[in-house]
């Protein structure tokens, strides 16, 4: 066959995917880059740099070099912060001191959990410990605190400071106070000792909460053995198997995985006692009162009022949801029809699928990763004048060949920062979707330039195949939009100080930008711009989007009530000591705020790992969702691509990071201060029939 005939034969018989890939490249480069399989580039003549472009981090030993340099610089900045005259320079010195340590510690925090090389992970872990120890010492450095106190105690100088500088000064003082800086020497030593003890207890509980439980193989029916991991004569249970269609598998997993571990129970009880002691020592009524200072809610009383009112307003709907699940269980298993906690996740999924036919495989062909990134690019361009531009990382800059580097560029302001997209599954990678700040943005007086923020988004998506790009389920697509909401908060929050950059804000506000993105992700006017079949180019039908949106309301009250139960439990655990076990508290709260029966000899609280990172703040997700819902309905539901509203959203909410009180940002966006009742009504109204991210009737 001649060369020309071979070429003609290839063109005629190449796969449709190849054809579509060629067409897809007519999109913006970012869409094409994410639909292409990662190519290993030959870098023979390219000098290897370090992770994130940090020269020292070309090998694990570089962490020690970077740590030493940061600590040496800390000494210089400490002298400067302690000796400068009270004023703006004081706050700038504190922020620079914080930034120098954070740039190493934050990077190490990411590397210790995500790098595939155990030597890198180990080196990063050592850096985290070393920097953490220094931070603890700085938080109890009396001379450093006095320098800040001189500024805060001088009303004339404080009056001359801009609002951001005043707030950052107050936030730094808050960090001192919660470390016990204002106490006498003896009490301050107690506070430091409690801090150190809590670091160990937190780590012990976090590790223990994810450990599997095991049971003798002979203790469970033989036909179930293959459902679980084996370890000699034992069966290992490492999760709840909540999606299993077999009632018995779910029940066995629930009873074994949640079986109490006496050592871990002791760890949790001691952890909660130490948190309470520390809070009391530094002047708070409880750990909850200390944790909620500076948040939207402000006090545990407000949180409990919010959760109780939400429970009351949902009660009838929750009862109906549980009845629906109970009827479904009777239908599926007439001999064992009592609705139990292990049934809720599975049966709610069955009811959604039965009613709306939302099988993920029907949606995935329309949601290639490249298409979704193209959709995000279009959305950000229309709302903020921002583009996502794919860049080739330098040799040694990324920790895995499939990590993509994206520059975020504004049409007039230029380069805003970088997002490293670590999207694909790999062995030993944490199975969680999250956003990491690697470097915060801040204005650098010393260089006269803005320090660009750098973040990582971590997902666990399937790799592309020879015949298809990575295809996302609707859940994966929403998670991508959610995490990108955090990234844009980091990029668009051009704060003067890194201490309050981007997502460094109150926990119950931090999730608002990410949850708001979920509304855009399920609005047909947004989806229609990018969701099309990777083989045929056909758009995702509007009716499929409508089904997806309506399906989320099925059992929505019961799902929300479960989150309320978790949030209440978190509040009670972090309130005043109850003089009863954490399990007794759980039994009572489960009966009062959930409704499905407690299972004897289980301790769900020992799997509640959020108690570590979100202690007394688990309610934050519900409150953030309420705010996001209000912002969506008031500002974007009429036109989700409105540039004026996008600019207002950036100006009032995204642009401040944590430099403005969270409720003031919400008030600025909504043009009114919402009440607890408003938050509750926003969440309840989402469950009403026909509340859509688009209004179908008006368009038909």
TrEMBL record:
Keywords, in A-Z order: Acetylation, Calcium, Cobalt, Hydrolase, Iron, Magnesium, Manganese, Metal-binding, Metalloprotease, Mitochondrion, Protease, Transit peptide, Zinc
Gene Ontology CC: one annotated term: mitochondrial matrix
Cofactor(s) this protein cannot do without: Zn(2+)
Protein localization: Mitochondrion matrix
One GO-annotated biological process of the protein: protein processing involved in protein targeting to mitochondrion
Gene3D superfamilies the UniProt entry points to: 1.10.1370.40, Collagenase (Catalytic Domain), Neurolysin, domain 3
EC class name: hydrolase
Every Peptidase M3A/M3B catalytic domain range: 241-683
Predominant subcellular localization, coarse grouping: mitochondrion
EC number: 3.4.24.59
Molecular function in Gene Ontology: metal ion binding; metalloendopeptidase activity
Co-factor binding comment: Binds 1 zinc ion.
Keyword Oxidoreductase carried by entry: no
Catalysed reactions, semicolon-separated: Release of an N-terminal octapeptide as second stage of processing of some proteins imported into the mitochondrion
Source domain of life: Eukaryota
UniProt function note: Cleaves proteins, imported into the mitochondrion, to their mature size.
Subunit text: Monomer.
The family this protein is said to belong to: Belongs to the peptidase M3 family.
Official protein name in the record: Mitochondrial intermediate peptidase
